[in-house]
Amino acid sequence: MNRAIACAAACLMTIGAARAAEQESCRKVRLAEPGWNDLAFTTGVAQSLLHALGYETQSDLLGIDVIYLSLKNKDLDVFLGYWDPAMRTYFAPYEKDGSVETVTQNLTGAKYTFAVPAYVWDAGVKDFADLKTHADKFEKKMYGIEPGSNQLMLDAIADPSLGIADWEVVESSEQGMLAELARHIDMKAFFVFQGWAPHPMNTAYDIRYLTGGDTFYGPDFGAATVSTQVRRGYLAECPNVAQLLKNLTFDIDFENRGMGYLMNDGMAPEDAGRKAISEEPKRLDAWLAGVTTVDGAPGLAAVRKALGL
Questions:
Q1: C-alpha dist (Å) from residue 14 to 237, 240, 241, 293
Q2: What's the topology of domain 25-108+225-306?
Q3: Which candidate among 115, 208, 222, 288 keeps its CA 20 to 30 Å from the CA of 17?
Q4: 3-class DSSP state for residue 202?
Q5: Nearest-angstrom CA–CA distance, 26 and 5
Q6: CA distances for 247 relative to 39, 164, 194, 284, 286, angstroms
Q7: Domain 111-222 sits in which CATH superfamily?
Q8: Using CB atoms within 10 A of its CB, is residue 275 exposed (0-12), middle (13-18) or buried (19+)?
Q9: pLDDT exceeds 80 at position 18
């Protein structure tokens, strides 16, 4: 009996030591987002939770192509922003070689495709095919976001059926594109851009989404889901962070409000995340189910204390 107890104790000590080593290697969580406010906000939520659990985080602003290459090379751990189907082209080679793993869908009900101000839609631009008819009014330009994030626009231009091969994609940033949208609306000028939901643009401006983009963005105006992804092996290496990532899901209304804190109130992403959590603290029950602090203490109690809830 004593021998059995001694063996069990030794086994538990070994398991405990292994867990401590694993936790130590996982204490810093490296995330990235491409400069989109929806992903800045959700990444800010994740960081606020991780910090409250005792983790260190690093969040880098990178183009989508660089994010995937960094996950493959194990220079990043977590990406909360895989828009499907809009990013399939980017993700495909990494899915094929298994270097990037999808954890869970964190948002449903999203959409992503070409949009125009309502007065342009009223003037007859209601479908991708209508763009060529009004090419001169658009100055043969369409407005995208960060370089590396506009491949679907480039694919549309390259499609001979649309007749817009001589158009230009103006790349800048989400903020730059929206500034141009506001400027064009003030002048009642024609403007076509890459629009999406969730995003406060849908309430700040009177805009319409174009039909005809199924080939590029998928059906139903680019109806999309957003998923969390990690580098290969991360879920097994860091099971506590993995559990948080599996639990961490959002909805359109929550993200619209949170993005408003960034865009309208000028808050930093993590501050916006903390504010959004403080307004709906019941979300923590599901997000932190089965999650501990970095040192193994109950996660929910620690986060509530850290956030003053």
A1: 17, 19, 22, 20
A2: D-Maltodextrin-Binding Protein; domain 2 (3.40.190)
A3: 288
A4: helix
A5: 31
A6: 17, 44, 30, 10, 7
A7: Glycine betaine-binding periplasmic protein; domain 2 (3.40.190.100)
A8: middle
A9: no
